[in-house]
Amino acid sequence: MTGVTGVSAPLFSVLGPLVVRGPNDAVVPDFGRMQTRLLAGLLLNSDRPWTAEQLIDLLWDDDDDTANMQALQAHVSRLRAKLRRALGDLVVLEHTSQGYRLLRPADSLDLERFRRLRGGDLTELGQACALWRGNCLSNLPSSVRTELGAPRLDQERLEAVRAYAAATRAAGDPAAGLGQLETVVAANPLDEPTHAELMISLAAAGRQAEAHATFAAIRERLGEELGVDPGPQLVAAHQRVLTAYEVTAEPSWQGIRPPVTTLIGRENALATLSELLTDGRLITITGPGGAGKTSLALHGLHTYAEDTGIAVVALAMSSLASKQELVSALAATLEVSAPSQEALLVRIRAVFDKRRAVLLLDNAEHLLEPVIELIDDLLRSCPGLTVLTTSQQALRMPGEQAWPLPPLPLPSPDDEHSPTIELFRTRAREADRTVDLSDVAAIARICRRVDGLPLALELAAARVRALSVSQIADRLSGDLSLLGPGLRTGDPRHRQLYATIAWSYDLLDPTEQSVLDQISVFRGGFSPEAAEFVVDVPTDVLNVLIELIDKSLVVVYDDGPNRRYRLLSTVREFAAGKLVERGIELEVLRRHFDWRHRKAMELDAMTEFLVRVREARAYTPYLADNVEMIRFGIAQGRYPEVIEMILALLDVWMVHPGYTSQAFEWLTELEPHLPMCSTQTRVLALSYRAEFASGLIGLLEVLPMQERAWEAAREAPDAELGADRKNGILNSLIRLNNRMLRPTPDEQIAELLALSATHDGDNGWSAQRLVALAWLARGQYEELLAFLLNPHTHRSASRGWLGDYYGISGLCHIALGAEQRAYPHVDRLRSLVGQTNSPLGTLGEINRLASLLLAMGQPDEALTAMESLAAKLPGTISDVDRFGILQIPCAESLRRTGQLKLALESLRTAFRAGNGTQYYEPQVSGVLLTAAIAHNLGDRDNAQRLSGLWTTIAENCNLAVPVQFRDVARLLDIDEMPHTAGSAWDPRKIQESIDLAEAWVVDELS
Hints:
The chain is built from 49 helices and twelve strands. By secondary structure, it is mainly alpha-helical. The longest helix is centred in the first third of the chain and has 21 residues, at 150-170. It is globular.
């Protein structure tokens, strides 16, 4: 029964003395000593059954002669009867072959509620702490509490209370956490971490005297009872009370502080930064490594905070390697904690939501995507927050003010007052107070040689301990090795890291070095199998990888159920250089290309569409490797394999935004090499190129590409291009026809059906769906219904088009006058929406459901369904519905319910979404609806003109009035069925009709 919701569950309370409350909230009395122990055990270990032996050990001491199976069964029977009398069937004490277990409603145990709430926001964390009434199971003997893990749960309470106190301080309300702190401190008089939190919260609330008294009291208790002095955490908290909370004049600052050195030559930059911080909410200081971005940001923020009193949070990111580390480091800087990443984000938002602050993310270029996600989240959630980043490249986010910071200006040989020369002189004097700095020309040479980079100038100035200024200038005229070992420019931390990698590398044995060098060809993550395929060493590769993991040169991470590996970028770059030195880079890259080609072909061989798409989504970590290997294959002239690889990764490109354009460009570039390929590869390349183009250019331009592909497929011998592949290509052509309202010849429909009948794969069910849609558009309802009732059609629908199947079946029954038979399809559609985990699939299911409800004369229900079910889409409707498909039934529902202005707005959205796409199918229905609204508004002339445009399109394209819009046909007195064979398809006239309808809608709204 665990997991049951919607019942009035009894509340079992273990966070304090064990208490049971009935459905009416009354306490259930008279549990005996042994039954209380038994119930406590069943509650605290509800995830597994208790064996009889375990319960006997829990209830009786080892030397108790009364302990036996009969006595246990008696206590179980009494407890079961007691629970049944008090709680009825809500709780069941079950006995199976595995043991005893208490089945109860979900969320009926206060411990469960505590653990759920403590991961939430500040309010929920406070509610979690308030659930405690004392120590866990305090009415049981200490030996039983220990056996059941109660002391560990008491520690969870302390951790939650401390987290709540820190969160209230961060939110600017430290007094809110004092009650909980004082309660647990009284119960735990020797717990140092909790006393430390109490001291800090008291001081933050302005009660410094009580904070000092708290420290004195625990110091005395520790000495008297344990004979020890306060630990480091208590001492640090006391010091914080003595300093941080006694000073109020300085602005609040958390994180890295400005360097103690003065900032030279950046006066104008400081002024500009202050203006940017005043006017904007997202500022990025860009520039090359060593330009002084960090120093400028910290000095500028210090001045800005002093002038405005705004809080500053400054986070150094150079050592962070993931979004998880980024969030954890920011939370640590803000002094908040939580049991999960999502809960940490909730706490971080709460901190920034309560005050005006500037967040500095320093050195963000190596974690751009996580930084962008975090910034977008915080700026949306926290209106008083400004974010300042330093990065070698802009984030390219909306509203970002990217400000390039150049090096210092290069001085002329005699420009003694140049800020660049002044920086060198200042740092040189800090290194050696006696240094001769009179040679301005030599200093100017140094400044120009290092391009005015402040970091390089400071490194050069430090050399005055050993060399004169002229000697430094002379040595730098050759190369920059004087500035330090390893990398010659860049952040000092990078150089130190480079040296550390070199040191670690030298400690490896030759085989380990060889493996590390060879796996540097992986830009992203890689599996053990990938490493074993690519690496060529005379030993077991996996064992060597394990050694490299242990030596912190290879990182392990979880990828679903599997573990994969990756190299830090600095390690990869170092090892890649060693690979070049070995002279084997080309052969290792060839093996990597072979591996990526092999994995692509394995993906393509998967026959189930949904399985293939799921695997394609999991390709995200390998996109960079695939792209790099495709480029490598092109450079190596391996054109047939490259084209096979691009085609095999079709689903990968489709589910990752931005990659279809890259795939289209590749296939366009490789088209001259198609004669080198097999017939199947050559024909598929023509078809897939058209598929990729359909999202990039107008469908009218795609049409000849797809026709060319189909002609090539028809001419191909069956032995070289199977029926499944031909079916897929004809699928693509007819899908394009349907979208553009281009009539598909009956012979092509027959050919498609014949091809689809030979197999049950994805192309088979897709073909049957397209045929059903074509017949529905033509109004061939009797033929369509017979097709739908065919068992083979229903089986194919269950593979990928069940939503369309139910929707089309319902519309078909209504069109044939059997509306009652459509009702079950409505219910089936409701239960199906969102089950495919495909945004476009969910959108189509909502559209079919709304259309069915409209056809039944239920516009209010259609609106309600669209509004409620849209929550199952990832993001807003406009994010997914980029062609405005759902706006059409929305507009008709609004029209029929008398909301004409809103209906016009939906039509305007639909027309705008389709502009330039030549995706005529939904928009032509929009022309019909526009005519109906014109009629409703009394504009009979435009209603007649627009309905005439619809009639012309319907006759030319062999279209029936959609079943869900038959009310419109009756209103406008137009024929519901087409009268021609659709032989005069003219896309220009279709577009003109759509444009005229859109113009009328826009004019009416203005």
